[in-house]
Amino acid sequence: SVPYRLWKRYGDKSVVAENWAAMGRYLDCLVRNGGHLTNRCGDWLSYENNDEPVKKLLADALFVSDARMMAEMAEALGKESEVRRYRTLSDRLLKTWRERYLDASGEVREELRTQTTLAFALKYALVDAAARPATVRQLTDNIHAHGDRLQTGFLGTAILLDVLSGNG
Questions:
Q1: Less crowded by CB within 10 Å, the N or C end of the chain?
Q2: How does pLDDT run along the chain (168 residues), one tens digit per residue?
């Protein structure tokens, strides 16, 4: 969300306040449609798997992130009932995401592991702390297996270097 990023970068909540109603309507629309409005292209131009299950994983990850951002922005604006609403939503979405896309060990299911899906799992804290080291290892192993080359499309490329540097 642009208002969220501007607020975090510059500390000015006015852009969040000005766009609050529109952001709420957008998230409400996502809720009504099961999050299916976002990311229809998946990780566009990825060299790895970008089939429907991967596209859905990425869209659902962004849905979790959107709900978390809304909760954080609601807190900054002092909207306590909205904080609770969006935290409850983000918790429910995270639980569903984990049920759909993680295996019994809490790691991204093997058939869904791409550089982008692993980076998303790390960036958006979709795997718990216990699975984080394995997820980092899977990501770096994937990169090494491809001759130390990126296999990401637009979405993965935008976050990959920050995710790698943020995880040592």
A1: C
A2: 899 999 999 999 999 999 999 999 999 998 988 876 655 788 989 999 999 999 999 999 999 999 999 999 999 999 999 999 999 999 999 999 999 999 999 999 999 999 999 999 999 999 999 999 999 999 999 999 999 999 999 999 999 999 999 999
Q: Helix (H, G, I), strand (E, B), or coil: what is residue 109? A: coil
Q: Which long-range contacts (CB under 8 A, 24 or more apart) does 74-77 make?
A: 76/7, 76/13, 76/16, 77/13, 77/16, 77/17, 77/20
Residue 108 forms beta bridges with which residues? 102
Distances (CA, A) of 114 to 51, 74, 79, 98: 11, 33, 38, 16
In Å, how far from its chain's centre is CA 113?
15
What single string gives the DSSP state of each residue in 40-54? TT-STT-SS--SHHH
Q: Which amino acid is located at 158 in the chain?
A: A
User: Any idea which residue has 């980076």 for tokens?
Assistant: 119
